[in-house]
Structure formats: structure tokens, C-alpha cells
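seq:
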Amino acid sequence: MNKLVSIITPCFNAEDFISDTILSVQNQTYANWELLITDDGSTDYSIKIIREFIKNDDRIKLFEISNSGAAVARNNSIKNAEGNFIAFVDSDDLWLPKKLELQLKFMIDNNYNFTYTSYKRIDEKGFDLNITMSCEKQLTYQRMLYSNKIGCLTVIYNKDNLGKIFMPLIKKRQDYALWLKILKIENRAFGLNLELAKYRIRKSSMSKNKFEMLKWNWMLYKKIEKFSYIKALYYLLSNIIIKIKKG
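struct:
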């Protein structure tokens, strides 16, 4: 197994976290990857930090765009990707060392084109919150409409089989929109129930703002999926009920 993996990373003012993210990629036991970082107009030292890494590792590539949002940044990296597989990690998240090795084996052994894994949550300083987001064994488009059950930092899809699939241009929840888009093509996504990544909860994280998430879910249902008002409302209310039950 020597397939090239293109890792898609948007970056915006991530000077406090980007080094740890890059190091977690460099520490992978599977070494045939390229890390495509698109900086979305950072005004801090993010670009300087990334360039220091590039000096010693030509697998890391930096692209700079004017501030356009995460969807545009991710799509720019996907456009420039040369790999057989597309993977995602944001500029404040972390991978465990065997993430690529184990997930690629899972995909190749089972002929899966779209996969995700379980992951843990950490706080802004990187401390474990003792919260594991366990993945379901498999997901369909219909099931995913009720809520996003896939962590962006865990996804890999087979570009050779599916082609390059780009994120819909919505300001937030574009990863959720992409999973739905892929599931219209691929039919099923498959979960590897191993904790292979760490998701950082920041003070500004949208995942802490449930009202904001629901607003963008509504936009996704209406503008991207083009549902009727009644259908969009049904899935939005279902999403709210699911979140209440989870506490």
C-alpha cells in the first residue's frame, strides 16, 4: 500500500495551534502524504510558522488566498490535490500517529470509498475532556439528514474512485454539506470505531453555540439541499430533538 493521501487544511489565524496540527501529521506512521494548507488571509504568525515547516518537509504545501471562508480555502486545497485519497484536518485539530495507516487499511481491505472514525474532544489548551465521539458502523444520506454524525477531522474519501468532490459554498456547516453530497454518489459511509483524532473545542467554536449551528443547518437544508419549507423544518426539529436527548 503506497497510495498518496492529500490532506486538506484551511488556516485562519491559527498561530497557537498550527504547529501541533502539522506535527501530528508528520508523526504519522504512514508517510506517503501531502499536506495542502490554504491560508485564508491570516493576520497573525500562521504563515510564518507554516513556512518554517516547509523548509524541512517538501510534503507540506502552502497556498494563500484573501479571506473567503473555510469552504473556499478547503476547495482550493482539494483543487491542488494530487493524491489518490482526500483527507481532512483543520488547523487546530490533531491526529493520532496511526490514523492514516489504520484507516487506509480499513478502506482498502473492505473496498470502502468514504470513511470516518471515532475521535476525542480536547479543550483549547489541548487537555482531554474525557468525551469520546464514537462513530456509527455505517451511515446513509437519509440518516445523515437528521444530524451530522461525522467529524470532519476523521474523513477520508477515495478520490480515484469518486473523483474530486468539492465543498458547497456555504459559510458554515460546509463539511456536513459535503458528506451529504458524497452520500448522494456513494450511498454509504463506513465508520472505523477507533479514536484516531482529537477535536479541539475553542471559545469561538461554533459547536458550542447550538443556536448558531441550527441556523446554519436550516440554511443547508433550504439552500444546498433545496428542501421545501415543511421538509426543512421537519429535519431541523428532528435535529433539535436529537440534541436535547443527548443533553
